[in-house]
Amino acid sequence: MDTQGMDTSRSAILHDKPGQSPSNRSLERGIEILRAFRPGSELLGNGDIAERTGLSKSTVSRLTQTLVGTGMLQIDAQQRAYRLAPAVLSLAHAMRTGSHVLSVAAPLMRSLAESQRINVGMAAPDRDEMVYLESIRYNRRIVLRHVVSGQRVPLELTSLGRAYLAVAPEAKQKALLNMFKRRRGNQWEPIGRAIEDARKSVSERGYCAAAWQPEVVALATPLVTPNANYIHNVSVSTDETLTSVVRELCKPLMDLKRNIQKILDAGLPP
After folding, report:
1. Can you tell me the mean pLDDT for 234-258?
2. CA-CA distance, 217 to 246, in Å (whole number)?
3. Are the C-beta atoms of 11 and 3 separated by less than 8 Å?
4. Is 250 exposed, middle or buried (0-12, 13-18, 19+ CB in 10 A)?
5. What does the pLDDT read at residue 16?
6. CA-to-CA distance for 61 and 254, rounded, in angstroms?
């Protein structure tokens, strides 16, 4: 990632920065280093991090030492590489326990998952991906794929991401669509049509559906709050048609959203 000039020309896909103060470039670069760690990329050397972030190796070397000193990274001397430190996990725990929306939604999500024997999730956008904040899995049949809190999924392919695009601010939506178009190349046309169909579905019905993985159908609906947009979804692993799954699950999904919204609007504790 090119971080040059981030304080004067921030990309539209980045999170909005409040206030007018200039961005702290060293802090931004340190956070980009932390973001470089993903499942499958848990142990990274300075060269790996430089490649993933677009930062120079000298900058990476200086900042990784600082991040080790602050307890955010651990160094593996034998591998001459770094991994995320336990302190990072405590930040995630603090985020989850401090989220009022999540504390309201989680019990209702679990009740729906248990009663219908379906998967119920809640996610939020992060740049060009969706991040699961909660995932309660009650698959009706054995599957190999398991989704957990913190897991990322493609924004442009999933019902979660498409539901978000339907309510995203116009500038961010445009920037994301342009990015996906460049990234997908010849594959973009059907994806773009599906995103537009999802936008219309959210506008008309309040939800959209997608089947981006074999024999998995998911429905998603946006929950717009004053501070952030969240997306709820329900999914099943099935060989039934998308239409039949939508017919079965659209009402439970929309009831879940209404019940969550009702509690939030009333200002009631979870």
Report:
1. 95
2. 8
3. no
4. middle
5. 73
6. 49
Q: Tell me the sheet residues that pair with 202.
A: none
Contact 165, 173 (CB under 8 A): yes
What pLDDT shows up at residue 12?
66
Which structure tokens are listed for 32? 């980009």
Closest by Cα among 111, 52, 135, 124 to 259? 111
How distant is the alpha carbon of residue 255 from its chain centre? 23
Residue with tokens 């936008």: 199
**Is the pLDDT assigned to residue 114 strictly greater than 50?**
yes
Instruction: For residue 176, give the nearest of 11, 10, 16 by alpha carbon.
Output: 11
Q: Based on the number of CB atoms within 10 Å of its own CB, is 259 exposed (0-12), middle (13-18) or buried (19 or more)?
A: middle
Q: How far is CA 140 from CA 18, 108, 109, 115, 143, in A?
A: 44, 19, 16, 12, 9
Task: Please report where in the chains the tokens 């034998």 appear, as a residue.
Answer: 78
- This prediction has a pTM of 0.90
- CA 59 to mean position of chain CA atoms: 28
Average pLDDT in the 166-183 region?
95
Give the end-to-end CA distance of the chain in Å, rounded to a whole number. 40
CB 211: neighbour CB atoms within 10 A? 15
Q: For residue 143, what are its two tokens?
A: 């599957």
pLDDT of residue 141: 63
pLDDT tens for 37-47 read 999 999 999 99
Pair of tokens at residue 267: 């200002």
Please state at what angle helix 188-205 crosses helix 170-184, rounded to 10 degrees.
Answer: 150
